[in-house]
Amino acid sequence: MNLSPVLAELTQYPFARLDDWKDEARARGLDVIDFGTGDPRERTPAFIREALIASIEEVSSYPRATGLPGLRDAIAGWLDRRFGVTVDPATELVPTLGSKEAIFSFPQAVLGDRRAVAIPEPAYPVYERGVLFAGGNVVTVPLREEHGWLPDLEAFDAWDEIAMFWTCYPSNPTGATAPLSFYEELAGRAREHDFLLCSDEAYSELWFDEPPVSALQVADRSNVVCFNTLSKRSSMTGYRSGFVCAPAEVIAALRHFRPTVGTAPQEFVQRASIAAWSDDEHVTEVREVYRRKRDIMLPALEAGGLRLAGSRATFYLWLDVGGPSEPFARRLLDHGIVCAPGSFFGPAGEGYVRFALVPTEAECARAAGVLRRIL
Ligand SMILES: Cc1ncc(COP(=O)(O)O)c(C=O)c1O
């Protein structure tokens, strides 16, 4: 059978291996506590669930790619409150089915003569896959702890070959944040060399000390594209609701492209999303939950000799394990604790592991007890 060569060449999604590990552990009768994948299991706030239910209509029609004006207004209102950024909801926003599909398909809508895309490593794997399926090629930008997990822009030399440069801060997996000066510098290079700075800000609302900045806050955002989502901010992974904010020309391209793919969010989800983006109070509570879990888990891990190596924000603990990450993760698995080896995020992640603080507080307390015993 003639199937996509890109698909055939893709290595197994590393997290599929984690699923195999978990199945094996359960088959051995272990009580598994899963810090491996980053799917929050917190309750979606009741007012958001109610807004969804109240929005289901008798007649169901196709949603339009432009999205409901009320949703674009609510997103623009949040960007203004949160980052002090004024965007035009009529021309600079498009709602998406969560941010994953938008991140994946973005290169298909924008890659032209230039086919190269700069992608950090370690990183969320979807940036690379989107580029490969769009027929582009990847220029890997290694991130290092000694550089604050930021790309070394001085060392990068493919500025005139790239069409896009992906960044992700606060970062999955490292939890590092980026200062506005970093975005200013990269946005300046984007204007000078005519590429798009694509900023994935899925974790912008999960912070502990200072609220992270957005790439949208740069003085001139004519080459800046920002992706954000309600998945983590409002514990809404299952709703699939996010947005892209970009210059009008890019949004016009997406409005042209997206109806072909059929990726407009359902209108009842859009109405629930209006409620979510319009409220900030519930997000304070979401942050508090992750702070409590962090306060339970981190001391136990540190007492066991692991060193926190990033994690200024996000619900990830990124830890230096002082040796190869996969045997370390397998050792914990023998005691029912699942974490993600850094090597799953690419060679630059070797030596580290990632704990996603998604189990319940009670499970975290149980896991901390186990860790104190075995590490
Ligand atoms: C870095 C990063 N970006 C984007 C996403 C996509 O989130 P969603 O599609 O739920 O909005 C995730 C999900 O885990 C992520 O970790």
Describe, in plain words, how this protein is organized in 3D:
Strand 3, helix 6 (126-133) and strand 4 form a beta-alpha-beta unit. Helices cover 40% and strands 15% of the residues. It folds into two domains: 5-44 and 282-374, Aspartate Aminotransferase, domain 1, CATH 3.90.1150.10; 58-279, Aspartate Aminotransferase, domain 2. The N and C termini lie far apart (50 Å). With 375 residues, the chain is of the alpha/beta class. The protein has a seven-stranded mixed sheet, with helices on both faces. A four-stranded antiparallel sheet has the order 9-10-13-12. The protein has helices at 5-9, 14-27, 46-54, 69-83, 100-110, 126-133, 180-193, 230-233, 248-261, 267-277, 281-303, 325-333, 361-374; strands at residues 33-34, 93-96, 116-121, 137-142, 162-168, 196-200, 224-229, 242-245, 307-308, 316-320, 337-338, 340-341, 352-356. The model has no long low-confidence stretch (mean pLDDT 96). Bound molecules: pyridoxal-5'-phosphate (PLP).
